[in-house]
Amino acid sequence: MGDILFLAHRIPYPPDRGDKMRGFHILKHLSRRHRVHLIAFADDQRDLAHQAVLSGHVASCQVIWRGKHNIVAALQSLATHRAASISAFDNREMAATVAKALKTRPIDTIYVFSSQMAQYLPAKPRQRVLMDFVDVDSAKFEAYAGQARWPMRWMHAREARLLGGYERAVARRVDAGLFVSEAEAALFRSRARGGNIQVLENGIDTDFYDPKAAMERISGMGPLLTFTGQMNYRPNVEAVKWFADRVMPRIREHHPRARFAVVGRRPADAVVALASREDVLVTGEVADVRGWLAAASVAVAPLRLARGIQNKVLEAMAMARPVVASAAAAEGVDDAGTIRVADGEAAMASAICALLADREAAEALGASARERVLARYGWAARLAPLDVLLGDAARDRKSAA
């Protein structure tokens, strides 16, 4: 049995954001039975220090700095007629490093995390290739185009078209294309011409995200509505601005002491500006998001544009918090009725006010949400399909016999 080469568009450590969480747990899962060689980009100087930690999980680890400016990537995209998302990750050092690994290591499987990394596959791979698309990224740019004005409308539409064609071409070349939810997989199947499209869902570390776990507690906040996420990510920025502008005034009519906590690293200027309001807290990066979740009267996910399964929703559920989410944020989460789904400012404000007014019902809803996560979203169960794809399940059955 040969080794696995794991290519990641961002170093999967620390597992403190959605893509890193998924990447890290998949990497750990694969490393339990296989020798795994990790080659990943880093775009944060602090991440360069984590190579030593990851080396404890894998047979070898190489991290390559990616510092290309978005403007440079956009110009290269125009010159080469490629999607800017792909140009942004075009790197000679990465290409040479991958080529050397394939030449010198006994690799029989290449696990590609995020479509940007598919450009480093050999033209005709002799290895098994698993392509983890996670989401249908091209659909995100379609949505952006629908909301934008010229010239951004043209740029987003171009990106959607070029990236969509690239995604479909990659799917036809690999042994399996993986998506984070059945909804994403079904969307891609409706657009693709062929390809083995399968679902590999996200899980949640329920021992870490446990309301009883040791953590720094936050108190004295009063009624607190908490949103967590990477706060320079456009859908998150738009969500918190909309919530602060349109939903919070309605909530404050009934709960004047209520405040909205925006918790996450790298807040965009538009998010920082929200902190001038008396009813909004913008924390920036925090050492441990669990304290803010534990303090939440209600965890909110008012995303209007969302792809795949939202980790922020699973984390809040695991922390036994009552959750109110938009339909977009709830899509793909098999919650069995343990979260409240509301679209539009009036409906969302009403759902939140009802939970603030009935704390017993809110706590019961949070408790049922945690039970659902425990039953449905453990990482080992969610990643079991990987063992089938790699043939491990068949080998286990043969060994048992």
UniProtKB/TrEMBL annotation:
It comes from the Bacteria. Pfam families: Glyco_trans_1_4 (PF13692). Coiled coil: none annotated. InterPro entries: Glycosyltransferase_grp1, Sugar_tfrase_PEP-CTERM_Stp1. GO terms for molecular function: glycosyltransferase activity. This is TIGR03087 family PEP-CTERM/XrtA system glycosyltransferase.
